[in-house]
Amino acid sequence: MAEYINIRGQNIEVVASDPANPTVGQIWYNSTSNTLKGESYAAAAWATGNNMNTARSILAGAGTQTAALAAGGITTVGTGATEEYDGTSWTNNPTGLNTVRFYISGCGTQTAALAFGGRTPPPALTAATEEYDGSTWTSNPTGLNTARQELAAAGTQTAGLAFGGSTPAVTGATEEYDGSTWTTVPPGLNTARAGLAGCGIQTAALAFGGTDPAPGFLSATEEYNGATWASNPTGLNTARRIFAGAGIQTAALAFGGSVPPDTGATEEYDGSTWTSNPTGLNTARQGLAGAGTQTAALAFGGDNPNVTAATEEWTGAGPVTKTITAS
pLDDT at residue 215 above 90? Predict the structure, then answer.
């Protein structure tokens, strides 16, 4: 007679703590938490998080999903408001930007960020550059060589990259920051544009999307190697402007923006091709900021049509540990 174990398989393992590297399909009982758990595969998705304290659009973002920074932007007027995200909630920093502005860009980490460019009220382009140490913004008397708005950024506080934007004519101007001074790198982007997104580091950056007078909304993608930009013939699947990006040159994420209308479209880049993800932002919008990586990104702020404080967390597809219940 066949035994039950031979018909139904092995007993469920009882462990005091979850396995360090479980495989998909593995099931175990955690005797410490008294829970039955299993490893499954989850699709990528955006999850709604806690709102920012100040609803705003066309702001700067930096950092990671669990340690992000939001600075500047516009409410009904320009703001220098600065907030920090800890993975759960946003906290106001009473010390905001020294130069209130919107259409600003930024890069770096929550405790070592860089903010530059934008438009100040009343409307005037600025080259202002500021550094954040985790508590205070310090103005650098040496600003961008090309004052502009709607530009993109990549890199760190001591090795930053600024590219594209509007002067008000669209530009492909590219500048590198060494922690004190901006240096223009000719000839700049192959496709001059504003309202684009960027990510990566100073020597391996990615520029995508945006707009120019003709043909208008762009899907163009370019890669920077620390000296020159190379165009990728395969652009975004959804041409758009005033949107956000996260990640690195070979593993990037693009989300939100104006098509028009405003969109929540999300795409992943593998170093050669953009792939659309069927799961877009829960709140379609333009003028938002982004932070993080391709598999753990953060989207915050924006407008559609009113300014929003909406925050969303992106989790890429992959293995996930779940607690198994009777329901």
Answer: no
